[in-house]
Design brief:
The structure holds 2 protein chains of 2 kinds. By secondary structure, chain A is an alpha/beta fold. Chain A has a single domain, classed as NADH:ubiquinone oxidoreductase-like, 20kDa subunit (Rossmann fold). Chain A has 5 helices and 7 strands, in the order βαβββαβααββα. Chain A has a 5-stranded parallel β-sheet with strand order 2-1-3-5-7, with helices on both faces. Chain B is α+β, with helices and mostly antiparallel strands. Chain B has 14 helices and 16 strands. In chain B, the strands form 6 sheets. In chain B, strands 1-16-2-3 form a 4-stranded mixed β-sheet, with helices on one face. In chain B, helix 4 runs antiparallel to helix 11, helix 6 packs antiparallel against helix 11 and helix 12 runs antiparallel to helix 13. The termini of chain B are close together. The chains are: A alpha/beta, B alpha+beta. At the A-B interface, helix 1 and helix 4 of A face helix 4 and helix 5 of B.
């Protein structure tokens, strides 16, 4: 049933998930069309039975705050044709990476929690961990920029399949 | 340790069972800390609400308004009447959009035995109607937030001292038309959750900020015990509990867990709902007060209707004009903001220096306050279901119960990693 549909994954790491909220708002206008062309294979906000096998497009929002995050993003990269970094935290690290710029006193205050939860000493942007094919900036991402990027990717997949 | 399932997500659950009795339940919020209460130190107060809105994309506009209130109290700024109306409308846009997202996309699939809301069948008349209702209601909440506050996520117009942009007449007329159009869909939604046969009843305490007329921005904190605590003392009400396994702080009051959110608000203030809402829902409202956690969903649906009815009244009866921001010289001070966010009572405290630079603060979010209550519910639920129920069914029932709390985007979103031992 999902043959020829574009396989989509959406993954959230260290962030406020504002891009995911915007994505669910864009669905208000595009759900009928997207149901026909997309196989939402792994989107936690939309379904329970998520499949983690292969993706045509993996959207990643959020910064990389731990080894667990890093490993997951590396796995996503291996099984995805296109990796798209979405939003400011994924692309620049900020504001999730604000602790990278804390002064000594602030660092001392958070140090026990960083150790307890095995967080990275410095928060990373996604491109510091894997190759990123496209970026959709913004905090949150801009509706129109997202649509333009998605439409470009759809065109690319269609031209490869014809 | 008998490991049952593992799905990627930002919360997890560890249940320890011995001789068919639950020994411990750890509901873990595993989202990595982003240290906003540390990061706010040293920032100019004028930029604080926008920074703190980035705590949560789902209810960012509640964080903005809560932070603005705290900053204005610290600077002794009293906002204009029009500013209050625009803030109320901002909250209504948020409630309509956010409750609809939770009720349709996260919860409705459980009611219809589907994996995803997008799996609903467009050829089935009822499911077809629900699909269209869902996206129309969400889009209307989004549109209301956009014309009033500039955006439904991290809204740019509300700032300390007022708004930087005002809705045009034409935008207001369009908004009224759209909001009126969704009212029948909201009534259908309420009927679905009224008829829903999910129930889980356990006595607990409910806490909410109760206003003079049903709303989300002003009032005093009611815990159903007869007293109503002014906002500025809410910090003393909260007893912080450190759960070593969770990235979020948990809270009790009087040594006991309590629940915040739509169910608490409905239990404590249903008589203050908009008159049109009360007229349409006479029998439905008789179901409250209730200790059935699944009525949190029904309470959210009712809050959408209240937001619709009151937004229409405000938009039809007020003219919005350009207004300058109210500004005051910086001064040393402490300010408290309390807002009823979609998921419950939200608390912001800010301490500012005479130079307008933030010295520190505190933020308490609804999901942290509900964390221990969720654990106690799961404990009872699992005890009731063991030993006859298969573990997969227990896990599903746990997820459903957690979703009824609408804990946060990723939590509510069908994640759950359960570890059994």
């Amino acid at each position: 049933m999902n043959v020829n549909k574009i396989k989509i994954g959406w993954f959230s790491f260290s962030c406020c998930e504002d891009n995911l909220v915007v994505f669910t708002e864009i669905l208000n206008d595009h759900w009928q069309e997207w149901k026909k062309i997309f196989d939402f294979r792994h989107v936690n906000a939309l379904k329970s039975k998520n499949i983690f096998d292969e993706f045509d497009i993996a959207f990643i929002e959020g910064a990389v705050a731990s080894e667990k995050h890093k490993k997951k993003i590396e796995e996503i990269r291996i099984i995805s044709k296109k990796v798209v970094a979405v939003g400011s935290c994924a692309i620049t690290g900020m504001p999730s990476a604000q602790r990278n710029f804390f002064n000594e006193e602030q660092r001392e205050n958070i140090e026990p929690l960083i150790e307890h939860f095995a967080s990275f000493p410095k928060v990373l942007k996604v491109s510091e961990v894997v190759k990123v094919d496209a970026e959709i900036p913004g905090c949150p991402m801009d509706h129109n920029v997202f649509m333009k990027a998605v439409n470009n990717l759809i065109e690319e997949f269609r031209s490869h399949n014809t | 340790m008998d490991h049952i399932s593992k799905v990627e997500g930002s919360a997890g659950l560890e249940v320890r069972v011995r001789n068919n009795k639950v020994e411990s339940v750890h509901f873990k919020i595993t989202e990595y800390k982003r240290f906003y209460t540390e990061a706010m130190k040293g920032k100019p107060i004028l930029g604080l609400p926008q920074l703190l809105s980035r705590i949560c994309g789902t209810c960012s506009n509640a964080h903005i308004l809560c932070s603005i209130e705290a900053c204005e109290k610290a600077l002794e700024i009293v906002p204009s009447e029009q500013t209050w109306l625009l803030r109320i409308l901002t909250m209504y846009g948020l409630m309509i959009r956010d409750h609809a997202l939770h009720l349709y996309l996260f919860t409705m699939p459980d009611l219809f035995g589907r994996d995803s809301f997008l799996d609903f069948d467009e050829n089935n008349p009822e499911e077809h109607q629900l699909l269209h209702d869902a996206f129309e209601i969400k889009a209307t909440g989004n549109a209301l937030a956009t014309i009033i506050a500039g955006r439904s996520v991290h809204a740019p117009y509300p700032v300390i001292g007022g708004f930087t942009h005002f809705p045009a007449k034409k935008e207001i007329a369009e908004a009224i038309e759209k909001i009126k159009k969704i009212r029948p869909a909201v009534l259908r939604l309420i009927k679905i959750f009224e008829k829903c046969d999910f129930h889980f009843d356990r006595k607990t305490d409910f806490v909410a900020m109760v206003p003079e007329r049903y709303g989300f921005l002003n009032g005093c904190i009611d815990s159903g015990k007869g007293d109503c605590l002014p906002e500025q003392y809410f910090g003393n009400f909260l007893e912080r509990v450190v759960l070593p396994y969770s990235q979020a702080s948990a809270y009790k009051h009087g040594g006991k867990a309590y629940m915040v959110g739509a169910l608490a608000r409905m239990n404590l203030a249903k008589e203050r709902l908009h008159n049109e809402t009360k007229k349409s829902l006479k029998e439905t409202l008789d179901l409250f007060p209730s200790t059935d956690i699944y009525y949190n969903n029904l309470a959210q649906a009712i809050e959408i209707l209240h937001s619709v009815d009151d937004a229409i009244e405000i938009l039809e009866n007020n003219k919005f004009k350009e207004e300058p921001l109210i500004k005051k010289p910086y001064k040393e001070g402490v300010g408290i903001g309390v807002v009823e966010a979609p998921r419950g009572t939200l608390y912001h405290k800010v301490e500012v220096g005479a130079d307008g630079i933030v010295k520190g603060g505190e933020i308490v979010v609804p999901t942290g306050q509900n964390q221990i209550n969720i654990e106690e519910d799961i404990w009872r639920l699992v005890d009731e279901l063991i030993p006859e129920t298969p573990k997969e069914k227990i896990e599903y029932e746990i997820e459903k119960l957690i979703r009824a709390y609408d804990p946060c985007m990723s939590c509510a979103a069908h994640f759950l990693e359960v570890k059994w031992s």
